[in-house]
Amino acid sequence: MQVTEPMAVVAEVAVDPRRGRVFEHGWQSWSPATTYPVAGTSHRPTGPVLQTMCWRPDRPGPENGFQGEGLLAVDPGDDGPVRVFGARKLQDDVPSIRAELHGDRLVVSTDQPEGVEDLILPATSLEGALAAWADGFAREMGVARLRPAPSVWCTWYSYFTKVSPADVVENLEAIERHDLPVEVIQIDDGWQAGIGDWRTPGPGFDSLPDLVGRIRDTGRRAGIWVAPFLVGADSRLVADHPDWLVPEADAGHNWDQRLYALDVTHPGVADHLIETFAQLRSWGIDYVKLDFLYAGAMPGRRHTDVPALAAFRQGLDLIGDVVGPDTFVLGSGAPILPSVGLVDAMRVSPDIDVRVDPAGGDMSRPSLEAAALSVEGRAWQHGRFWVNDPDCLLARPAMPQRRRWADLVDRWGGLRASGDRILDLDAWGLDTTRRLLSTVPPPTPWI
Q: What angle do CA 19, 23, 26 make, to 5 degrees?
């Protein structure tokens, strides 16, 4: 479903066409967020599936120019003040804000003129203006005192969906042997029976509670990956409860199957989420990575007649209530502004990868270049909205440009996680992993 509300002009900003810059904020974790020359056009997805899964599914960008989701800022390049066009306190929607150069004027428009503020904030740079805007938005959204992130080891980037309990134990023992400062062992995708079947461990993980106990016996915390609002076509949940889905919502394609969105306003879904996270919590898990969260905000009819973003926030609130204040919650693949105040940490970029450049040039896809782009572009959110997660450190010799990635994690990584099989690390990799996991920064702003 594509939204086609007319765009209303809210400002015409005089700019230097050669020196002016535009900051465009992407919709969710994997959408690019960076600055561009005012005469340019921002990045676009390379196909409809990526538009759905990595960008704003119902509001594709214009052919030329820019489209920020809830936030767009302009440095005119002529020594004039930075202008920030940002959403007021989030209500039922996030405005799309466009800008296109016409001569020496940047024309700014939006689909929700009453929901956008045109601000000149006390700052001398784009980054400073974005930080000042974020201070106000965080207050409006009721962001509580942020807590430091624990240091983490994660299974994903060495084992992907083929992870086994033996892999976890091998790395747990290696972490102890090398005295690495890891506080959380996080089991990522691959432990579950199916996408949506979170109460049933998959083959090999029948004794998941015992594995969690073994982790906790070392004095560490146990973490787990869940995509709570996403359902795979091959799941038991779809077969048993097709009425739990948002009927018009095509949530994309992955794991060789079509994906659907759960309707969190359905009483059965609410009970399902409560039971799922209560079970995980009862096993001793107190660190959860909530992934593919965009599915909870997909447009479409729901059991209760509420806007999609209200349903999304309702779902995150429910999960937070179940896991309790002692559980650290990391969001990923999540609509950024609608998530403010509801998670402890947020992935602020696409996945890191051994690939340097993204496939097809799509800057929402896993790669070093795409991850670096938005890690830097969203640095001002750290310590204001949450702890910024740049994704895992990959320090093994097989990682191209591993020193560059380590430097980025060192500079902009609020959450520090290792994604390497520990036995694959050489001396430099071990030393770098130890150093970065030993120096997790506090949840205070960098900018």
A: 150
- For tokens 């994704």, name the residue: 391
How far CA 435 is from CA of 129, 279, 347, 391, 407, in Å, comes to 32, 35, 21, 17, 12
Which tens digits make up the pLDDT trace of 310-326? 999 999 999 999 999 99
Dist CA 227 CA 292 (whole Å): 6
20 close to 75: Cβ distance less than 8 angstroms? yes
Could you give the CA distance from residue 81 to residue 110 in angstroms, rounded to a whole number?
Answer: 21
Give residue 31's region: left, alpha or beta (phi > 0; psi -120 to 50): beta
pLDDT value, residue 2? 52
pLDDT recorded at residue 1: 45
Round to whole Å and give the CA distance between 363 and 333: 14
Q: Is 368 exposed, middle or buried, given 0-12, 13-18 or 19+ CB atoms closer than 10 A?
A: buried
Q: What tokens were used for 92?
A: 């039922």
Token pair, residue 138, equals 């965080």
Question: How far apart, in Å, do the first and last CA atoms of the chain sit?
Answer: 38
* Sheet strand arrangement including 71-75: 34-37, 21-24, 71-75, 83-87, 116-120
Show Cβ contacts of residue 322 under 8 Å, excluding neighbours closer than 6 positions.
Answer: 273, 274, 277, 278, 281
Q: What is the pTM of this model?
A: 0.98
> Residue 201 and residue 329: Cα distance in Å, rounded?
21
**312 to 69, 111, 282, 293: CA distances (angstroms):** 16, 21, 25, 8
- The helix (run of H) or strand (run of E) holding residue 272 is helix 267-282
Q: What is the pLDDT of residues 104-114, one digit of tens each?
A: 999 999 999 99
Residue ranges of the chain with per-residue pLDDT less than 50: 1
d(C-alpha 311, C-alpha 334), whole Å:
14
